[in-house]
Specification:
The complex is a heterodimer of chains A (286) and B (292). Chain A is mostly helical. Chain A has helices spanning 2-31, 33-36, 61-92, 95-110, 113-132, 140-164, 168-176, 181-210, 213-218, 236-244, 252-285; strands at 48-49, 57-58. Classes of the chains: A mainly alpha (286), B alpha/beta (292).
Chain lengths: 286, 292
């Protein structure tokens, strides 16, 4: 009887590990034949032209560049807001303020991404266009701005946890030595919580790189290899979402999309693993 | 306490079980009573609106038939026909030879019925002074040869080129008939939906896009529809119903239903309804051009 219960618990606990394993297995099974036929080298190119009467090309450079560019912009936008917001919430705000602000931040995290995308298309893109005098607002910058907005809650709440777990004795020591509140925050609390904040930023980036709907609606989705923020880019996620629906089952295009999926999964896994490592080192030091 | 809980649970499960049994019994007797036949139509996103309007009208006059409509794109529809998971496939393009071969391998004979025509309108912002373009100019704009409006008789401003995603039947049609099967330029922005193209054309003064004429007319004065010249020397033709029908307007296409063999039974009734006067009236109302 006891063994039975134990077994059930073990199965329940390892479900997510099994699932990740199965997903990897499935992705590789679908993607594998691509290695033999067009060959992996055909992924190494800067032209993604999957539907063509001439020659189909599956170069993933533009997609990887698009994802990197949008993620970088989003990080630059989200980090100041997320970290400064977390500092305010944990160190400065009165309990009443924290209690009003937190639900709104959590609400921001809960808005469906398609709604945010629609907001981006109708409101943000024309604003970006007007502010920078561009011919269109459909570019990597608008996408990054929008995704930054979506990453703020993640960065803010994980950073806040990190800041709150800095031992009170550190701050007391600083104050006792005559440091004022600002000095204590920036020279003691934030540096002590830095590994946690770094992990928060990485988790935020993981969220951004995997985001699909919002980015698909505002980046213009032109598959060009560029690192200029005001050019249109096509991210890996948008490519999978836009093309998987109608791709002929088992074709080269279908398999190429699975490779894009594998690259995406590996990237997010790496970000998460590194974030976990950083967090772990931090908690050991405490 | 625990006993009570168990009792409640038992009561609830008995209740649920009872409901399930009643429901399935009701469903069975319903079937015996008046034989509801289901016809599934799957395919082109362009045609989803039209097909669901047809289905609604058809089901009013034929309460014994249920028509269920789903989109996904022409390719998805054809794949479903090949796999035998849909009765009718709605497609905004011809079936490809490879697809026909695949179907025949599985013992399915796709039969084509033209049910309506669609014209593709070229739209720009109303403040753009350009009034017309030739097919050759359009091809050069979409393949990236021309990048400024001054190259086609407009002011010296960059062209923001908008297209549908590659999964769209309209994309493939445009590539085949306007780009002469050349590839789209890499700078072309691929929009996830027709509404997103309209939205951008409304906001961005120097953008150009292509959409079904139904959508273009619906957008009204917010966008400007360009005349299209088949040849450099020819006259510009606006995508009116008459011009699409007579073939004078060059970017027009037929819309098809594909069935496995000639349609039979309820599917035949539905196809006949679509081709009949009531069905073709709906075609006109939804912004497409009737077959006759």
């Amino acid at each position: 009887m006891e063994r039975c219960v134990e077994l059930t618990l073990v199965v329940a606990a390892s479900t997510s590990i099994i699932l990740v394993g199965l997903i990897f297995l499935f992705l590789f099974r679908e993607a594998a034949p691509f290695v033999q036929h067009p060959g992996l080298s055909s992924l190494m190119g800067d032209r993604w032209i999957p539907v063509s009467f001439q020659k189909e090309q599956f170069g993933i450079y533009p997609l990887v560049a698009g994802s990197i560019l949008v993620t970088a912009i989003a990080t630059v936008v989200a980090v100041p807001f997320g970290v400064i917001g977390a500092v305010y919430l944990s160190e400065v705000a009165r309990p009443a303020e924290t209690e009003t602000l937190k639900p709104f931040i959590e609400l921001l995290a809960g808005i469906p991404s398609v709604v945010i995308g629609f907001f981006g298309l109708v409101v943000l893109a024309p604003l970006v266009k007007a502010a920078f005098g561009l011919e269109t607002g459909l570019n990597a910058f608008t996408g990054g701005l929008l995704l930054g907005l979506m990453a703020i809650p993640t960065i803010m709440s994980v950073s806040e946890d990190a800041l709150r777990s800095v031992p009170a004795s550190y701050k007391q020591a600083s104050l006792a030595l005559g440091g004022n509140q600002i000095q204590t925050i920036w020279r003691i609390t934030v540096p002590a919580a830095l590994p946690g904040i770094v992990a928060a930023v990485m988790l935020g980036m993981g969220r951004v790189i995997g985001e699909t709907m919002a980015v698909m609606m505002v980046t213009g989705n032109a598959a060009q290899t560029t690192f200029k923020p005001f050019e249109s880019v096509r991210t890996m996620t948008a490519t999978i979402a836009a093309e998987m629906g109608e791709v002929p089952f088992g074709s080269d295009h279908y398999r190429a999309l699975f490779w894009v999926g594998i690259i995406l999964l590996v990237a997010t896994l790496l970000l998460n693993i590194v974030a976990q490592r950083v967090l772990k080192r931090y908690s050991v030091r405490q | 306490m625990r006993k009570v809980t168990i009792r409640t649970l038992t009561a609830i499960s008995i209740g649920l079980f009872g409901m399930v049994v009643t429901c399935s019994l009701a469903a069975c007797s319903g079937k015996k009573g008046n034989e509801v036949t289901v016809v599934t139509v799957k395919g082109s996103d362009t045609m989803v609106h039209l097909v669901s309007m047809w289905a609604e009208a058809f089901m009013k006059s034929h309460p014994d038939v249920e028509v269920s409509t789903t989109g996904g794109g022409s390719g998805t529809g054809i794949a479903a026909l090949i796999n035998g998971t849909t009765d009718i496939c709605a497609s905004s393009r011809d079936i490809k030879d490879t697809e026909r071969a695949q179907a025949e391998q599985k013992g399915i004979t796709p039969v084509e019925t033209m049910v309506a025509r669609d014209g593709i309108a070229i739209v720009v912002n109303p403040r753009n002074p350009v009034q017309e373009l030739s097919l050759d100019q359009l091809r050069k704009i979409y393949t990236g040869v021309y990048t400024r409006w001054s190259q086609v008789g407009g002011p010296n401003e960059p062209i923001t080129v908008l297209s549908r995603e590659s999964s769209s039947g309209t994309y493939v049609f445009f590539q085949e008939h306007v780009l002469n099967k050349e590839d789209f330029a890499q700078t072309v922005r691929l929009m996830p939906a027709t509404s997103a193209i309209i939205q951008s054309v409304v906001f961005d003064r120097w953008s150009i896009g292509y959409v079904g004429i139904g959508y273009a007319h619906e957008a009204g004065p917010q966008v400007k529809i360009l005349g299209v010249k088949a040849t450099e020397a020819g006259a510009a033709v606006m995508p009116t119903e008459a011009a699409v029908h007579s073939g004078e307007y060059s970017i027009a296409r037929p819309l098809f239903f594909y069935t496995n063999g000639a349609p039979t039974g309820a599917a035949k009734q539905f196809v006949d309804f679509c081709l009949g006067p009531a069905g073709q009236k709906i075609v006109r109302e939804t912004g497409y051009v009737p077959v006759q």
